[in-house]
Amino acid sequence: MFYVLFATILIVVVAAAVAAARFFDPAVAKILGRTLGQELADAWRKYVFFAIVVSGISGGVRPWSLERYLAPAPGKGSTQLELSGQRWMLELYTAGIETLRSIAWVVLLFFLFAMLAYVIMRAVEFRRQEAEGRRPHEME
Q1: For the segment 26-49, what is each residue's pLDDT rounded down to a tens digit?
Q2: Fewer C-beta within 10 Å: the chain N or C terminus?
Q3: Pick from 11, 1, 21, 22: which is nearest to 96 by CA?
Q4: Is pTM beyond 0.70 here?
């Protein structure tokens, strides 16, 4: 029964992580295209997609939590929990929520850094335009 629970959690977590990565992919592509240019944006978009999926899986599959359902080692005082329907639902819910929480952190960090890069780019563009605007006046 433990193997079925583990496989089910893994399937749910992978599906949720891929769905979330696909959901954010258009926004990531636009941001990276604007900040890095289309040439670099495609490669970085794939990396961000991969990072979202990996962080979602690592956050959703919690082996230390599933160890409670294994038989205790000889000489240990711990007991094995029974896998009831309620525990299945709780484990699946927790795996889904933890997956989304991990993805939310990755996406938040990406968008914060993207916003910082955008502000820096705008400041550089503004200074360049300002410098180009002064040149004709300086020659007169």
Answers
A1: 999 999 998 888 888 888 999 999
A2: C
A3: 11
A4: yes
d(CA 53, CA 17): 5
Token digits of residue 50: 């991969």
Domain layout of the chain by residue ranges: 1-72+82-133
Q: Identity (one letter) of the amino acid at 23?
A: F
